[in-house]
Specification:
Elements (H helix, E strand, L loop, with lengths): L3 H6 L1 E7 L2 H12 L7 E5 L6 H12 L13 E6 L2 E7 L7 H5 L11 E5 L13 E10 L2 E13 L2 H10 L7 E2 L6
Parallel strand pairs: 1-8, 2-5, 2-6, 4-5
Antiparallel strand pairs: 1-7, 3-4, 6-7
Helix pairs in contact: 2-3
Length: 182
């Protein structure tokens, strides 16, 4: 899904999220760093916490209404402080061409912030991510605590790298285990 050159230049980080509160703190930290035109890909299995993270980002940005998964609507628009946040969920796509057929490419015009769940379902048509976040349930041996997550970040652009640097200051190790400060 990525240009090989972009992937080679990507900056990577990993964060252990020990609770839903840690995921919410991450969402707040991310929200403070998002700028118009950014595209954020959110990847992970069902129940990995993608919508929870988006909800925390939007609430931190000032959303006062409900934040639901756009699984059936494809996109939910959240106008916050004069900026549109577009929350996409392509889980139900059977073919990537559905992205084009639905005319969703016009949302990626650089004026809003696009938060995209299941971006692989719209590849190769979806614009590249500035920041890719992969969430997974943290399993410890045979015990699964479904509140613990692992977040893996890949910054593909200068904007994505700036976002990561703000969340993971240079003094932080590339593989940090504590949530970012809010």
């Amino acid at each position: 899904m990525h240009d090989k050159h972009l992937t080679e230049l990507a900056e990577r980080r990993t964060l252990n999220l020990d609770s839903e509160a840690a995921t919410q703190s991450l969402g707040a930290a991310l929200s403070a760093q998002l700028t118009p035109g950014m595209v954020i890909w959110l990847e992970g299995d069902l129940g990995a916490g993608k919508t929870t993270l988006v909800r925390a980002m939007l609430k931190s940005a000032g959303e006062t209404g409900s934040v639901k998964s756009p699984t059936y609507t494809l996109v939910e628009v959240h106008p916050i402080s004069g900026l549109n946040f577009y929350h996409f969920d392509f889980y139900r796509f059977i073919a990537p061409e559905e992205y084009l057929d639905a005319g969703l490419d016009e949302y990626f015009d650089g004026n809003g912030i696009c938060l995209v769940e299941w971006p692989d379902k719209a590849a190769p048509y979806i614009p590249a991510a500035d920041l890719q976040i992969s969430l997974s349930v943290d399993t410890d041996g045979n015990n699964v605590d479904d509140s613990k997550r692992i977040a893996q970040f890949v910054a593909h652009t200068a904007r994505g790298k700036l976002c990561l640097k703000a969340i993971f200051p240079p003094t932080a190790a590339p593989h940090s285990s504590s949530p970012p400060p809010v």
